[in-house]
Amino acid sequence: MKLLVISFAPFIKKDGNFYAYSPYIKEMEIWAKYSEEIAFACPVLENGDGLLISEVKFPVSRLFVTKAFDVTSFPRIMSALLFSFGNFYQLFRAMIWADHIHLRCPGNLGLMACMVQVFFPRKTKTAKYAGNWDPKSKQPRAYNWQKWFLNNTILTKNMQVLVYGEWEGRSKNIKPFFTASYRDTDKISVSPRTLSQRIDFIFVGTLLKEKRPIYAVKLVQNLVDKGVNARLCLYGNGAEKSNLERYISDNQLEDVVFLRGNFDYEAMKKVYQEAHFNILPSQSEGWPKVVAEGMFWGTLPIASAVSCVPNMLGNGSRGFLLSMDLNQDVAAILQILNNQIQYDEMVMNGVEWSQKYTLDFFEGEIRKLLQP
């Protein structure tokens, strides 16, 4: 079976080899395992711009190179129109080659692929919608178009769309799904951290305005102002780094807040195993892996109530859902910090839940999709 993966996630050419975003490649290794040949339709770049990347070690049969684009300004819109002809051509060529078509959405290339796949109704298809499927959430127009195409059983046939959470109004195309980071063999005995020592908070993810890392900083700043012995370490890089550095300096938080940059897979395990709380005040998420990863190792999540996050956190039984009112959230965290029994119970609920969603379980579900 020839598997085609269409994704806006780029391949990076470096020293004659191809690299890509590490978590993405880790998942693609599983998809490749259950196909005879695998090809990608995606952009190819010369550098990763600080992206956490890993080498593509499985054989890639074909690479249908597309152009990366966005529509954030008029000149870029004009460039996108020019690129679109070449991208549509490449997508048609790629889908003709494939036996099974796999779309990675949402994204500009994902929207184009949603249109092109209409012309291949007999080919089996899957799509992973990694964003927020919640029909009530405010989404970019292009994202809503993709959801409409994927949910439409007249235009989109032989398709299983993997979405995070269970939502009203979904068609037979839609399959509630999950993602995973660890194997069954990674499971260890986990004990909740004591709250009588310094409280370690972490933020893990790309430092983007939409992820609201500054809110995580303000939460910990307010806790420290109220006498809590706390520290926040942020793991990741991104456009908000300079703003965070400025805020830390202006508010003299150098001994409280630390920007750690990107850590690799093994190093992050140790971080999760030692932290008390994992803060993610993001504006939009699909299935935030960093939340599930932290829970796996006994870190209690503090996250915004977006997408399927309330379900992941058991509506508050295995994590704290942010109201995004700073005073209210600080008061609620203080309440948890003063109740070791409640903290322990929530942590262990999270461990039990998250350790069900391993890569072994994930791999079994992917095998069913490709080899029914």
Structure description:
By secondary structure, the chain is of the alpha/beta class. Helices cover 38% and strands 22% of the residues. The chain contains 12 helices and 16 strands. It has helices at residues 22-33, 74-97, 108-116, 141-151, 213-225, 241-250, 265-274, 289-296, 309-312, 326-337, 340-354, 359-370, and strands at residues 2-6, 11-14, 17-21, 37-45, 53-55, 62-66, 100-105, 124-129, 159-164, 174-177, 199-204, 230-235, 257-261, 277-280, 300-304, 320-322. The strands form 2 sheets. Strands 1, 2, 3, 4, 5, 6, 7, 8, 9 and 10 form a 10-stranded mixed β-sheet that branches.
Any key phrases for this structure?
alpha/beta, globular, 12 helices, 22% strand, single chain, 372 residues, 6-stranded parallel β-sheet
Strand content: 15-25%
pLDDT < 50 runs, ≥5 residues? none
Backbone shape: globular
What's the helix count?
12
How big is the Rg? 21 Å
Biggest sheet layout: 10 strands, mixed
Q: In terms of structural class, how would the helical and strand content be classed?
A: alpha/beta
**SS elements, strand count:** 16
Query: What is the N-to-C succession of helices and strands?
Result: EEEHEEEHEHEHEEEHEHEHEHEHEHHH
Percentage of residues in helical conformation: 25-40%
Mean pLDDT: 93
The termini sit apart by 12 Å
